[in-house]
């Protein structure tokens, strides 16, 4: 292999004229963080709502949440992003389609929402599993005390369900961050896209992807560590001990 | 409310799990103010289901139930409001594991009754003292023994100032050495005049404080008799067999 190693490449000016290659990667990392954060908030909110709907006894609730989950879970993320980005603006009324196409940062919002919805199906399954894992009497106890159904969920079931599912939620958070790289296909300048750009400008493929690998690894280790910290803070004295 | 009207009036209540399985068969029962009614019977006789129909935790298809004069199925009845006035103690305690003992007592007072934080807290502290658990106020349910958890659960129900207390096998899940601490609290409550409906096999408790004993079998109320009659000269064959079995030891 006749490869010219250059580990100093990060500090060299990029041809974009806006700083060094390190600055390029940094800007990509920020976009990855932003898009992942928004997607995660969407995934948690809609996932929690759909998970609750899935846990209700009504057959209609199960049908609605089941359809939602199976649709979003069984279509590849890449196809979903393409559907939101390329297909949806053509399907909605012209005025809306034009607005969507002309929206500044359209790739960013498409990625954040598309990824958030994709992940929300997975979070929904976790949440409903967490609710199902609680003793049946917990809901009865809340109801017997006079809580309405929403109050029973809010004050009794969800606080425990989320504690139960924190470990699998950590995986889903990491999946969200990793999956954000798919957004490069609709033109979002996130970390993977900036890495590809660095490779193409500089021909330093190893240095570029070494940086991306290390950054993703550190980012996800930090996310895991933060979730562990949260787990520890929410741990209940004596719970699960017997 | 009319002082002499029954706190619980159950008339011709029937419930089916499916068309082929009837769990409650035409059950009628009155519980008057200050009365302690013990419900017993073999497992599967429908006694837990019966007690859970009183606060509409279990739906039923026929008959009527009124609590403190209010029909459960009446028009415009606010079921959560009605349930808040009926205290319920479960076999498996069902404390909220993510809340401290005090918060377990506070939460429904505040969120359902709308009491201020201080008012609710004062009531909780007083009730914890009454069940002799003041020292455990800041602990979490997971740190308490079964007997202690059940006493907290009783205090939590009392905090709502209920017109009646329902107990669904409150000592069945307890280790034997913890049964008496829970029964002691219940006996004290009965002697103070609380209206109580208690599903239990603790015949000692029934002898001590019950006014009436109801015996159920296969979804039917087979015997509904004053305590003295039930323990003295129960004539029903099924009830006699049941009693001889649980009193054999």
In DSSP terms (H or I, runs of 4 or more residues), the helix count of chain A works out at 10
Q: Going across the major beta sheet of chain B, what is the strand order?
A: 6-7-8-3-9-10
The CATH topology of chain A is given as MetI-like fold
What is the H/E order of chain A? HHHHHHHHHH
> Which spans of chain A have pLDDT < 50 for at least 5 consecutive residues?
none
The computed structural class of chain B is alpha/beta
Give me a quick take on this structure.
The complex is a heterodimer of chains A (242) and B (249). With 242 residues, chain A is mainly alpha-helical. Chain A contains ten helices and no strands.
Task: Outline the structure in words.
The complex is a heterodimer of chains A (242) and B (249). Chain A is 76% helix and 0% strand. Chain A has 242 residues and is mainly α. Chain B is of the alpha/beta class. In chain B, the strands form two sheets. Chain B has a six-stranded mixed sheet, with helices on both faces. A four-stranded antiparallel sheet of chain B has the order 2-1-4-5, covered by helices on one side. In chain B, helix 3 (101-111) crosses helix 4 (117-130), helix 4 crosses helix 5 and helix 5 (146-158) packs parallel to helix 6. The N and C termini of chain B lie far apart (44 Å). The interface between A and B is medium-sized, with 24 and 32 residues.
SSE blueprint and pairings:
The complex is a heterodimer of chains A (242) and B (249).
Chain A: H1 21-55, H2 59-74, H3 77-91, H4 94-102, H5 106-132, H6 136-144, H7 149-164, H8 166-179, H9 191-202, H10 205-234
Helix pairs in contact in A: 1-2, 1-5, 1-9, 2-5, 3-4, 3-5, 5-7, 5-8, 6-7, 8-10, 9-10
Chain B: E1 8-18, E2 21-31, E3 36-40, H1 47-54, E4 62-67, E5 70-71, H2 79-84, E6 86-89, H3 101-111, H4 117-130, H5 146-158, E7 164-168, H6 179-191, E8 196-199, H7 203-209, E9 212-217, E10 220-226, H8 227-233, H9 237-246
Parallel strand pairs in B: 3-8, 3-9, 6-7, 7-8
Antiparallel strand pairs in B: 1-2, 1-4, 4-5, 9-10
Helix pairs in contact in B: 3-4, 3-5, 4-5, 5-6
